Amino acid sequence: MSQPPDVYAICAASDIEKGDAKAFSLSRVAEDGETRPFPIVVVRTHGDEFHGYVNVCPHNGTWLNFGDGTFFSRDRAFLQCGRHGALFEIDSGLCIQGDCRGDSLEPVAVAVIGGDLCICGVALIEDVEPDPFGDVEEETMDIMIHPD
Question: Where are the domains of the chain?
């Protein structure tokens, strides 16, 4: 019996406006069991489709986005490597211009489920807030404030 794919909500779908992109710095479990950085970019098209890619240019392994977080060419028709200017088709990740022409961005499966944008099929490490009280049993404390 096969296990269902891993599905993790990473933000509300509405957090990415149509025609925009957003970077996420995640962590995943690699094949060797170690935790590795997993930077991704998710693009929401004007047609309300979502496309996810590993945020790494195939030319030399640098992030795609410019310093201010911009991912697009000036006309916003393509994703653009902020370091070398390579252009990538938004819907396929194929490089159509630049040093990595013919290569593609690594796709990341995304889906909108119940209004959340989810990443699918990748084992992520979830951030867990440490319990500041350790193993203390959960209790509620009544506090009364008396007016002077």
Answer: 7-120
Q: pTM for the complete prediction?
A: 0.80
> Cβ(7)–Cβ(118) under 8 Å?
yes
pLDDT digits (tens, 9 = 90+) for 46-75: 999 999 999 999 988 788 987 767 899 999
Per residue in 12-46, pLDDT (tens digit) is: 999 999 999 999 999 998 888 889 999 999 999 99
Domain 7-120 has CATH 2.102.10.10: yes
Buried b (16+ CB within 10 A) or exposed e, 70-102: ebbeeeeebbbbbeeebbbebeebebeebebee
Rounded Cα distance, 18 and 4, in Å: 30
